[in-house]
Amino acid sequence: MTIGDLDSLSRLRQVQTRSISPENFDGAVGGGGRATEGTGAECARDLGSGWKISPSVDIAAGETFELASIAGAGKIQHIWITTHTDNWRTLLFRAFWDGATEPAIEVPYGDFFCNGWGRFAQVNSQVIAANPHGGFNSYWPMPFRSGARLTLENLSPVPVRVYYQVTYEIGGDYSHDAYLHAQWRRSNPLEHLKTHVLVDGVEGTGQYVGTYIAWGSNSSGWWGEGEIKFYLDSDDEYPTICGTGTEDYFGGAWNFDVPGKGYTEFSTPYLGMPQVIRPDGLYDSQQRFGMYRWHLADPIRFSQRLHVDIQALGWRSGWRYLPLRDDIASTSLFYLDRPTARRPKTPSADDLEVHLGSEAVPDLGATPPRMP
Q1: What is the largest CA-CA distance in the chain?
Q2: Pick from 348, 350, 335: which is nearest to 141 by CA?
Q3: Least C-beta-crowded within 10 Å: which of 155, 251, 290, 310?
């Protein structure tokens, strides 16, 4: 939170706060804690109504569950959500604004919260916080003018238990606010001498505000010499903004290598590398990284078009760059003046799958989901 945001906390505004959860599915005034059935009913059998009767939902295999449906204008301010780690790459999180049939946000659940490898990493940032063990929080402002829908699709072969709460405000003027978009793309592996595309063919006026990448190195040696490039508006062959290296873009330097420690995790308000998965000598043969960069103080503004891509480069003999064929999965966030945009095709379960040895294989037994 900035100083300006803190100053606004004392300002009186004619808006109201609402919250949707399994204890109040539509956010109705006085509607919380009224459930008489739900996933906690048996646990509350000695206590009765009002005692955590419906704290969560079960989403059947292959089903899509509507987390929230909000009519009218408003702004989502906070999302808290949790489920078991096995589900972080088998759930697709979507958001639809103002009655659109196409989602503005379509991202794997874990990747949206900077945990793309199905293993927990603590994230302490301004807009995303991931806390032990899998308490995911989003503070991205999500305004809308006539309605909003949030959904989760379960692509796994087993039911998934999810706990969540969506807090939002209504009653304000959001007519001049842009819509939040989030897009996921994966190159697995990246084609030879090709760049990984983060955003392509987006038209309209807006600002690019954030990047998360789950980066898997498919070769030995350093992997982060590649530049990120932002092609804005009339840019064609060459971009207006060109970075100097992958670790530079994510706020680090010199291979993220603290002498004597090697790759070193860090998490700050605007940027970080909170996750380093090291080889274990068995199934985890390659190194994996999770990195984020939020353009909150420095949004990248465009007025007509946007394209973003990143190179994957290492080193070869004679101090020459080595084009790499790594596993790169990116989540890109931007605000746009319209509720829909050109987006990649919806990923399949196979597109999302993480290969991390035996721990990546879900438990398909009959053990019931536990309370968080």
Answers
A1: 74
A2: 335
A3: 251
